[in-house]
């Protein structure tokens, strides 16, 4: 079992890393990530249903540690996809209300399950046979709304709960960062008019980085730090750029043509002016 799972995890990690390093926007990346993880999850299920655990200890390890670590990223990517799909294309205040509702939902989930979370995070094991062996049942879990959707041969009463806790651990910083970006944009905008509908950048991230550095180099927005300008542009154009701006700039410098996007813009403008060269 260990060898099969290690190979499957290695394969999945490589695909996810490729997706995360791509220049696609968050919607496309979260959809692609959930598809990769959904497929891996199905393969894991097929394997386990045909596998006989050596003993209860191995079964507990699988449902307490291994399965949740496959499942939580699937929950995370699906949640991110739904959050961004339903995010209001409105002003900053409406988006902050929406994101804070998501944060509150996570906090409510955590508050209702504090006893279990303390048990799991403390590394306790005395209730593992109840929580992480199949075929167990107790009242609290029986009343969970999703209980009837669980597959009794591939689920225990708490493995999904662990996956959900781990997924929330990833969702929280994502939501906090999005709120911080909105706060930063508000403080920078001051009382200036801002369109109620955000436009989404349709070019690649590299093209926007090329544009960003040209604005920064020419001080188009005044004496604004590059990181501040980057945060603003990401919020305005509804896109997330590489956090390591210096690395992105170094990559652009070593290209055969270091400014293909700016050249394309210039040529397009000249054609529009009827001054084709």
UniProtKB/TrEMBL annotation:
Pfam families: RteC (PF09357). InterPro entries: Tet_reg_excision_RteC (IPR018534). This is Tetracycline resistance element mobilization regulatory protein rteC.
